[in-house]
Specification:
Radius of gyration: 33 Å
Distance between the termini: 47 Å
Strand order of the largest sheet: 9-13-14-15
Amino acid sequence: IYCDGSIHDYATDNGIFFSQMQTLMGGDNLRKIKKQMQDGKEAVRKRGGCPSSEITLPRGVAYDRKTEVWSFDDKEVAAVQEAFRLMDEEGKTNISDIAKTVGIQNRTLHNLLRNPIYTGWRVYDKKRGEEKYYKPNGNQTDRKKIVRDEPIRVKVIQEPAVTQERFDRVQAILENTGTKWRSERVTVEINLGTGIAVCGHCGRRLYAGSGKRKEGKDRVGYYYCAGNDYLNRRKGTSCPQVNIPKPVLDETLVKFAAQHLASEEFITKLAEKLHAPVKESTRPTLEKKLANIERRKKRIIDAYESEVIELAELKSRKAELENEAGTLTRLIQSETERNRIREQADDSLHLLVTACIGFARLTHKAEQRDALRTLFAKVAFENEAIVGCEILIPGIRPVCSTEIGIRRDRDSSLPRA
């Protein structure tokens, strides 16, 4: 590598060493330059200047960099003043209608009406966060805005375009104004997979969404993986799961619950699993080990009181014994749970079969949705096929219908596929 008149030969130890040292120093210099630049911008903000380009200024606001003076462009700011007047004096609250009247894009007007710069105050109450986002090609995108710990508020224009009283009244109106439907919904859409459907690829939840066909006439609902939201796509970590049409997934769920769960083959396999022979009880042995651990803990405390061991050693040995005791306690509880399941397996299977038969008779989607949530903890879909599920057998913890289970979710203890 030829750099600054010198040659770094990576075939030699010296070449590798000096190139690494220069890389470290270059990275440190870059970090210092960025910090100095950000500190300089922050100082400009605090003294009432504008450290960013003109494109970031709100409509009708101008800034002279030579004199560091803020001002209003009377021609441009007139539309914003009219928007404040319409909302304050005439009581209009529909921002879209006001935007059409004054000739400003409605989303832009939504932000302008909340900007205190028109009262003469420049306020910085948010900043870019530390978390970075990258596109699939590696380019960095904008970082999220977060609330500042110490907001900056500086008076930059003495003659405001909007009085403080009018601005406060408009803020009160905006705070009490929400999105309203022009007409009430006639029907409420019911999605059978909501709450129980998960992705068979990554284990995240499937959410119900809406979409349009290419001809743009009818809306076709679909389920999509949470891994395919816009943030994961920006990071390049999206899921290979395809969007599943709602009718397809709902029909698959209904057939699976009404036919597969109630089938003789499935019930037989589940009964064999629940009645599987268990090894000889190890509870007496485990209880003896627990009692032995308690005696050892008492001897360690006696040794510390007799000044035979130090406090650090006492804490270390006591923590080891407590970890061992916790493991033994969990083994005892697990064996107790297995015995309880064997004792009530027949009653639980009878309730499950009864629930499946009753589900097959349901015709209303709301009733089917409620019944599915009592039958399943989760159902995993890979594309349009079911690849695993957790069944809620009455009185028993969720049982996985596949040997490998489904992949771990963020709020689940499921084994990884």
